[in-house]
């Protein structure tokens, strides 16, 4: 895989210690989280997380069940709120901003579990994505149907009658309707057959390569995610423990043992 634009030649594989300062990339990053903590009551889900995502990169965050991956994505949108630390997008501090302002700044999210509207048609689901942001739906619809021809075929069908893979395509396409510069994807492979996962990941790669869309992808499917991503981070119980290029992380014995089985 080619290096991402602006990724400074790829991050060096480095174990991360608690309280470590973010690398210098954070200053020019599209997205930077610096020392972010977040909690649900007494449960501390993020314990001082620092990551950065450069323009044009696909960055993946891998980790076991309950490591805090979804929380990290949700904290970017302010729910739960960061208890400490800072989140910046294109140099602007977005920590604590209301959700709609974060979306208007250029970030969109496709949440875990897809959350499409089951009674609405595919087209109506897509239009909702544009309407919420007050943007012209035409370019988004064209992109959605080019990227996922299956959605065009099923344009008038209710969302709830689609297959799991088609629902995932719809969730991604709907997030793109707001014309974001950064797309947050939470476990797009969840519950899908391997062939469908490959289709979804291939679409993400195409989007990134052809439109320069920057992607932060949370995945339990570490193998596929690290093959797709330019860089990755490993999250273990709320702390980043390792970072590196996708290839570097795939080659690490501890990653193979913990996340890749016998691959
Ligand atoms: P999964 O892959 O299962 O979604 P994850 O890595 O995304 O896992 P999170 O869902 O972010 O992990 O959960 C991180 C921690 O926060 C876990 O200990 C989880 O039990 C806890 N947690 C998550 N959501 C809540 C909530 N709404 N209330 C209380 N605790 C929560």
TrEMBL record:
<feature type="domain" description="ABC transporter">
    <location>
        <begin position="31"/>
        <end position="262"/>
    </location>
</feature>
<comment type="similarity">
    <text>Belongs to the ABC transporter superfamily.</text>
</comment>
<dbReference type="GO" id="GO:0015807">
    <property type="term" value="P:L-amino acid transport"/>
</dbReference>
<feature type="region of interest" description="Disordered">
    <location>
        <begin position="1"/>
        <end position="23"/>
    </location>
</feature>
<dbReference type="Pfam" id="PF00005">
    <property type="entry name" value="ABC_tran"/>
</dbReference>
<dbReference type="InterPro" id="IPR027417">
    <property type="entry name" value="P-loop_NTPase"/>
</dbReference>
<dbReference type="GO" id="GO:0016887">
    <property type="term" value="F:ATP hydrolysis activity"/>
</dbReference>
<dbReference type="InterPro" id="IPR017871">
    <property type="entry name" value="ABC_transporter-like_CS"/>
</dbReference>
<keyword id="KW-0813">Transport</keyword>
<keyword id="KW-0029">Amino-acid transport</keyword>
<dbReference type="InterPro" id="IPR003593">
    <property type="entry name" value="AAA+_ATPase"/>
</dbReference>
<dbReference type="GO" id="GO:0005524">
    <property type="term" value="F:ATP binding"/>
</dbReference>
<dbReference type="InterPro" id="IPR003439">
    <property type="entry name" value="ABC_transporter-like_ATP-bd"/>
</dbReference>
<dbReference type="InterPro" id="IPR052156">
    <property type="entry name" value="BCAA_Transport_ATP-bd_LivF"/>
</dbReference>
<keyword id="KW-0547">Nucleotide-binding</keyword>
<dbReference type="GO" id="GO:0015658">
    <property type="term" value="F:branched-chain amino acid transmembrane transporter activity"/>
</dbReference>
<keyword id="KW-0067">ATP-binding</keyword>
<dbReference type="InterPro" id="IPR030660">
    <property type="entry name" value="ABC_branched_ATPase_LivF/BraG"/>
</dbReference>
<protein>
    <submittedName>
        <fullName>Branched-chain amino acid transport system ATP-binding protein</fullName>
    </submittedName>
</protein>
């Amino acid at each position: 895989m080619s290096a991402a634009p602006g990724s400074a030649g790829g991050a060096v594989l480095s174990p991360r210690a608690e309280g470590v300062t973010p690398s210098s990339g954070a200053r020019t990053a599209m997205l930077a989280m610096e020392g972010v903590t977040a909690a649900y009551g007494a449960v501390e889900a993020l314990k001082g997380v620092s990551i950065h995502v450069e323009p044009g990169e696909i960055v993946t965050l891998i980790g076991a069940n309950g490591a805090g991956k979804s929380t990290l994505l949700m904290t970017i949108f302010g729910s739960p709120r960061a208890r400490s630390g800072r989140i910046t997008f294109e140099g602007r501090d977005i920590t604590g901003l209301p959700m709609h302002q974060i979306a208007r700044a250029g970030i969109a999210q496709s949440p875990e579990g897809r959350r499409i509207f089951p009674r609405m048609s595919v087209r109506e689901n897509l239009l909702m994505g544009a309407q919420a942001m007050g943007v012209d739906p035409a370019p988004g619809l064209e992109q959605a149907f080019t990227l996922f021809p299956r959605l065009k075929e099923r344009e008038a069908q209710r969302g709830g009658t689609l297959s799991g893979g088609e629902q995932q395509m719809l969730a991604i396409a709907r997030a793109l309707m707001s014309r974001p510069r950064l797309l947050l994807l939470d476990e797009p492979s969840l519950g899908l057959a391997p062939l469908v996962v490959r289709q979804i990941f291939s679409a993400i790669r195409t989007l990134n390569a052809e439109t320069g869309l920057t992607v932060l992808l949370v995945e339990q499917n570490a193998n596929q995610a690290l093959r797709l991503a330019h860089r990755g981070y490993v999250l273990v119980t709320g702390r980043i423990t390792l970072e590196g290029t996708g290839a570097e992380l795939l080659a690490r014995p501890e990653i193979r043992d913990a996340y890749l089985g016998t691959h």
